[in-house]
Amino acid sequence: MLRVTTRFDRPDPALVDQLSGYSAATVHEAQGRLGALDSTIKPIDPTMSACGPAFTVRCAPRDNIVLQVAIAHARPGDVIVVSAGQYAEAGSFGDVLANACVARGLGGLVTDTGVRDTQELRKLGFPVFSYSVSMKGTVKETVGPMAGPVLIGGEIVRPGDVVRVDADGVVVVRREDLKDVIAKSRVRVDAEDAYIAAYRAGKSVIEVSRLAAVLEAKGLVIDE
């Protein structure tokens, strides 16, 4: 018998909402260039975006039985994060399960295996981020853990950590770091806005980024 729990602490929804206002790239940079999953995990549609607590699942390759159990037990707003061994040749999630997710109000799906029915998924609009697209079917044989730490895309994701996904990919923020990362993301956006304003005012990239002394120290000479 394998006993699993679906209970774990989730972050303050207000903080999750605040984090959703920043891009995945901004969040990654703001927390010290940490938390980005492997770039092979991408949205099936670049307009897809989500931010929510991770409901973590570990599946055997080409087997989606535990994923289906997770869909049945995840809470509204949760982003299901599936670790399945970075296996490309399996379509473990499609439009039928996506409709189940929408009906339960789930926030999205991130998986290191394949998905299928991508045209239908795009029409449905449910955010799906996957390692591959594959039409190959899966079995329902191997039960496994959920709501525990998983390794996916080179990062450890724990249940209740916050997953921010958009056109650039996936980044994870530790639940206990959420307030700090939000504050640092705000600082980064303000700084970038100032750079853009300076460019539009006529300043060069070298001036704004204070690169002149750095380039001189490296021996770069530019003849104009």
UniProtKB/TrEMBL annotation:
<dbReference type="InterPro" id="IPR005493">
    <property type="entry name" value="RraA/RraA-like"/>
</dbReference>
<feature type="binding site">
    <location>
        <begin position="94"/>
        <end position="97"/>
    </location>
    <ligand>
        <name>substrate</name>
    </ligand>
</feature>
<keyword id="KW-0489">Methyltransferase</keyword>
<comment type="subunit">
    <text>Homotrimer.</text>
</comment>
<comment type="similarity">
    <text>Belongs to the class II aldolase/RraA-like family.</text>
</comment>
<dbReference type="GO" id="GO:0047443">
    <property type="term" value="F:4-hydroxy-4-methyl-2-oxoglutarate aldolase activity"/>
</dbReference>
<dbReference type="GO" id="GO:0008168">
    <property type="term" value="F:methyltransferase activity"/>
</dbReference>
<dbReference type="GO" id="GO:0046872">
    <property type="term" value="F:metal ion binding"/>
</dbReference>
<keyword id="KW-0808">Transferase</keyword>
<keyword id="KW-0460">Magnesium</keyword>
<comment type="function">
    <text>Catalyzes the aldol cleavage of 4-hydroxy-4-methyl-2-oxoglutarate (HMG) into 2 molecules of pyruvate. Also contains a secondary oxaloacetate (OAA) decarboxylase activity due to the common pyruvate enolate transition state formed following C-C bond cleavage in the retro-aldol and decarboxylation reactions.</text>
</comment>
<keyword id="KW-0479">Metal-binding</keyword>
<protein>
    <recommendedName>
        <fullName>Putative 4-hydroxy-4-methyl-2-oxoglutarate aldolase</fullName>
        <ecNumber>4.1.1.112</ecNumber>
        <ecNumber>4.1.3.17</ecNumber>
    </recommendedName>
</protein>
<dbReference type="GO" id="GO:0032259">
    <property type="term" value="P:methylation"/>
</dbReference>
<feature type="binding site">
    <location>
        <position position="117"/>
    </location>
    <ligand>
        <name>Mg(2+)</name>
    </ligand>
</feature>
<dbReference type="InterPro" id="IPR036704">
    <property type="entry name" value="RraA/RraA-like_sf"/>
</dbReference>
<dbReference type="Pfam" id="PF03737">
    <property type="entry name" value="RraA-like"/>
</dbReference>
<feature type="binding site">
    <location>
        <position position="116"/>
    </location>
    <ligand>
        <name>substrate</name>
    </ligand>
</feature>
<dbReference type="GO" id="GO:0008948">
    <property type="term" value="F:oxaloacetate decarboxylase activity"/>
</dbReference>
